[in-house]
Design a protein that fits this description.
This protein has a domain of 39 residues. The protein is built from two helices and no strands. The protein is elongated and about 55 Å long.
């Protein structure tokens, strides 16, 4: 019989943890998520990366 109440932590993320351990993991990652949200608010309009990644650079016409 299928579970009428899907558990996203188990079904999507594959975390089949006891409730107390899952609560601890969620508590710890909540801090990380807060930091990521703070980083997303930064205005990086005038900031350019030091390195530009180009996945096609391995197919340049120039010989190595």
């Amino acid at each position: 019989m299928s579970d009428p109440f899907p558990d996203p932590y188990r079904d999507i993320l594959g975390l089949d943890l006891p409730p107390e351990r899952l609560a601890e993991v969620v508590r710890l990652y909540r801090k990380i998520l807060a930091e990521i949200n703070a980083l997303r608010t930064l205005d990086l309009t005038d900031v350019h990366p030091a390195v530009m990644f180009d996945p096609a650079s391995g197919w340049d016409d120039e010989a190595p």
